[in-house]
Structures are given as structure tokens and as C-alpha cells.
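Chain X:
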Amino acid sequence: MELVFIRHGQGEHTLEIPRSLQLEDPSLTAKGVEQARLLRSELPLEKEDIIIISPTRRTLETALIWSENIRCQKIVSVLVSPRMFPILPDARTLPCDKIMDIEHIKSEFPSVHIDMAVPPELWSKGINIMAESEFVKISKEFIADYKGFKKEKLHIVSHDGTITSYRQMISGQTLTRKDFPQDAGWYRINC
């Protein structure tokens, strides 16, 4: 199966770093909206496609703009939520990386399905600062679950650290922050 990881478009939290990292629930910027629109021609979708989306406003906006007028399946999963890369000792989740709660997602993004087949505590703490060994275990389970869908390709709209964590786990290579995708950039990998 081919995984196509797509980083969200430019978000408000990246405009005035480090101060902007304190924003809670940041949206896409006007440039981020345009980047999401460009994905339509760069990575065209079909109704048979599945998009797995991180539970943050900027990833949901990216996925919904990209898939506008395409009735493909859109699934929100905490297993592709923000992840720090590399994990730092005594790390904490920044305000910009807090995940949306389920009720807000249902209210504001009613066209998406929410993946509830994960331990409920993950919806409160996410995977951002999860120990590497635990991340590897749940990420392998996540991929195995979606391989069961018997699809050739799976699209995942996520974050730079999360994408790099999955890439490193799948490829076995040691990656760095230099390997992060750019805004609305993507990376294909077979697993």
C-alpha cells in the first residue's frame, strides 16, 4: 500500500515564531488556503479515495479545501495528530498543537467521520509527546488496520513532525528536522 503524507497548508501559528506557536486552534492563512487549492491539480482525488486527517483546524481545512466537490471518505484520526520530532525530554504540547475535541469537530466539520477505534485517552493527550516505543507500536497497528481496507493508496493530512515520525518508522532511516515537508508538501512511501 502506498501512503501519501500531505502536510497542511501554511497555518497562522507559523507567521511569527516563537510567539505565534502560542496560538490555540490556528487556521490556515490565505496562502495556506491557496496551497490547499493547488493540491487539487497536484494530487487529484477520486470518490474512491480515503483521506485520514489530523484533528486540528488547519489539517481539516486543508483536507476539505483539497477534496471540495469530491465525495471521498474523510476520516479524522488522533493517530496522525501533531507529533514532536524529535521527542525532547520533559517536552510539553504547545498551544498550537492541541487537538480539537470530538464535539467541536462534529459541530464544525460535519462531513467527516471520526475514528473512535482508539483508546479514549488518546483523544485527550494525543501522540505529540508519546514515548517513541509506544508511538512505533500504535503507528504499526494504524497502518495494519488501513491495509485491511485493501486500498492501493491512502492519503494522510498531518503535520511535519508526525509525517517525519511515520517516515522514519516505516523506512528504518534516521531522519532529522531537515527532512520535514514544506507547507502543503507531500511524501509518498510504500509499506
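Chain Y:
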Amino acid sequence: MSDIRRGICVGSIVLKDNKVLFVRQARGHPLEGQWSIPWGTVEEDEYPEDAVIRETKEESNVDVKVEGLVGIQNLPEKGWIGIVFLCSPLSDNLKPDGFEVDKVAYLSIEDIKSFEEPIEPWCKWLAERILKGDYSVIPPRINNPYKPLIGFL
């Protein structure tokens, strides 16, 4: 039997005024100096949609509402997956946490194309697709046999 460590990461595409929320990863982070969407791991005692709300708040100080599931991505670390949610901002007090993230900004497609700092390639690709309208969203559903738990079906 294989001893593969498995993990679930969540990322938020926070859309506001045709811009996507990005955070710059701080010194010491594996993506140091790169801009990415807010990301993090799902803790043992939480659901992915709760983790994405928590991670977005922790990294950017933005409260969000989950609008739906955008997709699932196999990650380079074998056995790990990323779940991406479309979110809308409920607050707008951008502030990096100063630990994992040292800058926060909303970027338009024009900003992304002309940006002089490095953007993590997958996050760049994803944000460009979202901003071009090349995506679909599976909305949260509570009318399922596990209600009141949310399903994206």
C-alpha cells in the first residue's frame, strides 16, 4: 500500500468590478515574491467552503461570500488537489497579513497582462479565464439528502 500524503487546498477567485483579488507571497513562503489568488489548506475540522472564507480573510482581510464552485485542479504534489471557488467580497479593507502575504491588490486583465512582478502561472491562467468569461460556476445547493450541508451539484 502506498504512503501518499493527501491534502486539499482551496483558492478563491474574488471578483470585484471586473478585477480579481491577488496576494503577493511574503519572504519565506514557497512562492515568495509571486502574486497568486488567496490559497490555503483545509483544516481537519472544516469544510472546503469554510476554509476558503477563512483563508481569504487571513491573507487579504477581505470577508467573502462563496458564490459557487469553479473547479478542481490536481496539484503538482502527488495526491493533493485544489478546489477553486468563485467569491464575492463583503468587505473591502485590503490588508496583507504580514506573515504569508505582504501585498494585496485587485487586478484587471489589463493589469495582469502588463504586470511587472511575477504572477504564479496557474493563478494567472485561471484569473485570465475568469475575466474573459471562460468559466462556469456550480452554485451551492442545500436541497440535498445531507442538508443543511452544502453540496455543489
